[in-house]
Amino acid sequence: MKKSILFIALVLVCSLSAKAEEKEVSCGSTVKIIATANPGYHFVQWNDGVTDASRTVTVDEAKSFTATFAHNDVTITVAVKDDKGGSVTINGEEVSSKSVEWNTNVELKAIPQDDCWEFVEWDDHNTANPRTVTATEAKTYTAIFKLKQIKVTATSNNDNWGTVTIAEN
Q: How much is the average pLDDT of 10-36?
């Protein structure tokens, strides 16, 4: 008499929901189990520590396997509009992009290049500086700076004796 064994492969998606696939197979047979990550995720390992996403196992008793998946890292990119007026840091580092773990907080800081420039806003109209963003997708943040306008005043000590003018070079 042929013995049947229940084989269960449990697949976890980000530890939030699980979908189990069950199959009854003959004792002593082999089955191939494959963990396939959805877009934005990657396979980490099986519950027994095996890190091959695809594997063949011999079924000689009831077995259960759990695949662990995790989010892929997210790339945060920063830029300065027209490459003028300053620079931007990501978590305190002057880099143009940084790969970070999904769903982590990232600090962006716009730094004027000197006293003549000032930060205006980010390209999404957020004016917080520094600002904290949560990395849930690859995204670019562009800082917008402007040259400060400074008032210059020139006065004559007596308008009857002479006048003054100001002309920008």
A: 74
